[in-house]
Amino acid sequence: MLILHMKIYAHRGASKDFPEHTLRAYKGAIDQGADGFECDVRLTKDNVAVLWHDADLVRCAGVAGRIAELRFAQIRREYPELLTLEELLVLANNNKKELAIETKHPVPTANKIERAVLELISQEKFDSKISIMSFSWLAIEQIKKHAPNQNTVALLHPSHSRLMRRFSSAKALGPNINMLREDPSYQSDSRELFVWTVDKDEDIQFCERNKVEVLITNTPSRARDVLGYH
């Protein structure tokens, strides 16, 4: 009999042990037994979808410049480990890993990033589940308009979580771990829960007790140990 268990997604890869959003981080996540990958995606000036959280290069690359204002080749010169979404899709597909893609907002290109992500997904014959996530209500609705069957996750911020839960068409919800602890009503919602970023042992166990479907963590190997997955 198939026993379903909470899935473990690697937050920006195994980012406690490797630089976030790099090939090393995602290969590390594979080695650590993650069920899926989580990533943040932005568009470069020449419309390449790259894995990057911040709007600029300062924190990760140590140089000035904004992703939206630089070409892909310029960014990769400054940060050689820069990965494209297309490269991650290939890695995930080859290793049968699920994928949760967060489109970042606000950005100057508005909802162009969602269309770019959907186009890349459609080109790849992907066997595993792909979810597109966003804090932007409009981004989720644009995805529904262009790809009604695409799984979506409404990421929740404390300032607008009630409105997002009520009005979003998303098929899943993405509260952070503190929100889940503070609001028991999440457990009665019929939608899947993608909970982030869960690294503490007691939080990992809390998510399991509360039947969370996807746990997003910087430490996939630790989560597996705590849950007793072998």
Distinctive features:
single chain; 230 residues; alpha/beta; TIM Barrel; eight-stranded parallel barrel; 9 strands; globular
Indicate the overall shape. Answer: globular
Mean pLDDT: 95
CATH superfamily: Phosphatidylinositol (PI) phosphodiesterase
Number of domains: 1
- CATH architecture assignment: Alpha-Beta Barrel
Share in helix: 25-40%
Q: Which value, in Å, is the CA radius of gyration?
A: 17 Å
Low-pLDDT ranges: none
Give a quick precis of the structure.
The protein is α/β, with parallel strands linked by helices and 230 residues long. The protein has helices spanning 23-31, 58-61, 72-78, 85-94, 112-123, 137-146, 161-167, 177-182, 201-209, 220-227, and strands spanning 7-11, 36-43, 49-51, 98-103, 130-134, 151-155, 172-174, 192-195, 214-217.
Task: Please characterize this protein's 3D structure.
The protein is an alpha/beta fold and about 230 residues long. Helix content is about 35%, strand content about 20%. The protein contains 10 helices and 9 strands. The two termini are about 15 Å apart. The mean pLDDT is about 95.
